[in-house]
Known about the structure:
The complex is a heterodimer of chains A (83) and B (220). Chain A has 83 residues and is α+β, with helices and mostly antiparallel strands. Helix content of chain A is 41%, strand content 24%. Chain A is globular and about 35 Å long. Chain A starts with a helix and ends with a helix. The relative contact order of chain A is 0.22. Chain B folds into 2 domains: 3-114, Glutaredoxin; 122-218, Glutaredoxin (3-Layer(aba) Sandwich). Chain B has 10 helices and 11 strands. Chain B has a 5-stranded mixed sheet, with helices on both faces. A 4-stranded mixed sheet of chain B has the order 9-6-10-11. In chain B, strands 7-8 form a two-stranded antiparallel sheet. In chain B, helix 2 (32-46) runs parallel beside helix 5 (97-107). Chain B is elongated. The interface between A and B is medium-sized, with 14 and 15 residues.
Amino acid sequence: MVYTEEYLKEKLTKELEAVHVEVVDESDGCGGKFVALIVSDKFQGKPLLARHRLVNSVLQEELKTIHAFTQKTLTVDQWKAQN
Amino acid sequence: MSVTNIDTVDNFVNFVRSPSLTVVHFSADWADQCGQVTDILKELSKLPEVQSSGSKFGVCDAENLSEISLKYKVDSVPTVILFKNGTQIDRIDGADAAQISSKVRTHSGAKNNLDVSPKQSLEERLKALINKHNVMVFMKGNRDAPRCGFSRTLIQILNGTGVQYETFDILTDEEVRQGLKTYSDWPTYPQLYVKGELVGGLDIIKELQASGDLESTLNP
């Protein structure tokens, strides 16, 4: 199945109660490639690996066919600090 | 388990009578090469698979036990003869380390340690691979020829830290490629492990680098 940015953005927002999500489709000859920024307080208190695992579990089905997925996971505070 | 000194004909006869493999080194003090063979046999005798097979190792002075040397046509040293049940089953004339090693292994029934026992489960294999080095990278290709942009970038970052690491090319082994994803519950490659634990993929390494935590993570 071919996924769209909207689809992934919606799913991530809903499942992770995200305050802000950006998804960019960088698919190329290799296959589906997406870059995502997810801001959610569900990441609070979790080390990097745990955060990424959380996102991975939300997108478990999709990741079976997506070739590459880059994610940046921030809590609301971290995101505010960045901006 | 070490090498027994055989100094009389009677001792010799008793020694080689064993139903398990006995390895006798015919030696001489004045021959340098015998020192080499002595070392080889010492190392072999320490191998777990050789020990568990009950194989025994002995050394005798070829000139002192000239009767025996004559009997078994030992006309130069070092010579290593393998016995079972008092009968000669194989021999190596001269200090040929490769032959000595492989014949001892074969006759003691020990598996060549390059064989992967079919009974070894995939899980054990993965565990062994993950722990092969303090810092292990499972990637597409290898450090000199990465076969994917993410793998290439990860290697670049690691090279920049100067930390020692080893890589495994998942493109060469489909079983490991799929198995590791399940084992670690991580869907993509490259994967970086430090001391047997998954640190993550390229994203995480980049974030660690940005926050200045990369070196301490690689060198806990």
